[in-house]
């Protein structure tokens, strides 16, 4: 009878998969069919699921009987059984060798009575369950299908942590070494094909010098050419809204700390955790919790100039020794992390110096009768002079942070410069493209514009607010009009809307403004007559 049941279950599974059943569909309590098959040593079912796209690295959403019942609002697992007959209920029943119409089997029925009801299983993969079942054949099948032997569950354990002495542990150890080698080769090839500079430029407009500096330092780290005793530390300087948080697009995990939340002395406890006997001791610190989970993360300390001096003292230890002791006395090693601080200190001086350099470059180009002035306006052609850094910036930083050892631990100070005109045009185009996609998705409206529109909106740039000033200008002059026209039912569904520039007043003293036109199928256009909103007294 057992063999007949197996054959019947397998044939039914194949039929269900052909009908479009998702092999990665989850039971409402969190597990997948592949996990059930791995725990119950169902080799034929496991093979069929893997061949049909089941993910061997999917993690279980189930924790334990008690936590899951509380999360789902179920008083007992028996109460958690789902009534109803469906394709998915078949899928889970097949994987556990038992077909029960109208009922999805419970956790204990599907898996094994050997699994503790109190143990935590959140994040466990099929490989974890195959290891718990001590089944070398299933372990090999999963590894050959791409299972990651280094993947950890919510407790931070790899599959090998659950292996008994014998073949399963040996196989996992062997594949861990193989996987690391393959992963290193794959990452190296990916870095060659898509250099970090290229990836950063997809998100950041301009700032060539800053991108090259950061990418070069990270490249040293990725390829093993760095001091393993100290983490990489950057200080990003420049005005607001010019791309300083580009660190969020760098590899590995990303942690962002808003340092304006740590302006008071007592808020040091939020940073590393309260000492024993104080309120919040068990919760731990915001930074230490995140670093413990990902010790090789990219950590952004945003607006570091606002932090209390005691917080800077803790950061100095972090930068100098590459480790941090939390409020519980536990030490976190994070020498492989990358720390990036941003600050608006000296932003006005940097902006004025950059503008002066750009004007000098334009003047030189004019004297040389350059064919295209924009070629000499790009940010990477403008470099902050060493004399300016030492005579102007260094004293400002020293006066603010008040300690040479803190500044001395910074590997690179990266300068972000104001945007030139060609970069402003890119920013405006990016914003308009964003709203054009929204118009198409939400209202089936096609939005078009030409170069004069870009020039007009670029005029709203404010050096002190950076790209945010362009964003606000587009919203104020374009999106506000679109919303008013839509409210007044002036935009037919599926229409094409063109933005253009018109001049008001006399020719020599004309003030350019935006005009919205509905374009017909015959290319004719009709200017929208958008009524101004009523004043409050009306």
From TrEMBL:
CDD domains: RecA-like_ClpB_Hsp104-like
InterPro entries hit by this protein: Ankyrin_rpt (IPR002110), Ankyrin_rpt-contain_sf (IPR036770), ATPase_AAA_core (IPR003959), Clp_ATPase_C (IPR019489), ClpA/B (IPR001270), ClpA_ClpB (IPR050130), P-loop_NTPase (IPR027417)
Signal sequence, start to end: 1-20
The Clp ATPase C-terminal domain, residue ranges: 419-509
GO BP annotations listed: cellular response to heat
Molecular function terms, GO-annotated: ATP binding; ATP hydrolysis activity
Superkingdom per UniProt: Eukaryota
Location of the region described as Disordered in the Swiss-Prot/TrEMBL record: 502-538
Cross-referenced Pfam families: AAA_2, Ank, Ank_2, ClpB_D2-small
Keywords: ANK repeat, ATP-binding, Nucleotide-binding, Signal
ANK repeats: from-to residues: 29-61, 122-154
GO cellular component, one term: mitochondrion
Keyword Signal: yes
PANTHER family named in the record: ATP-DEPENDENT CLP PROTEASE (PTHR11638), MITOCHONDRIAL DISAGGREGASE (PTHR11638:SF93)
Name the record gives this protein: Clp ATPase C-terminal domain-containing protein
Name of the encoding gene: CLPB
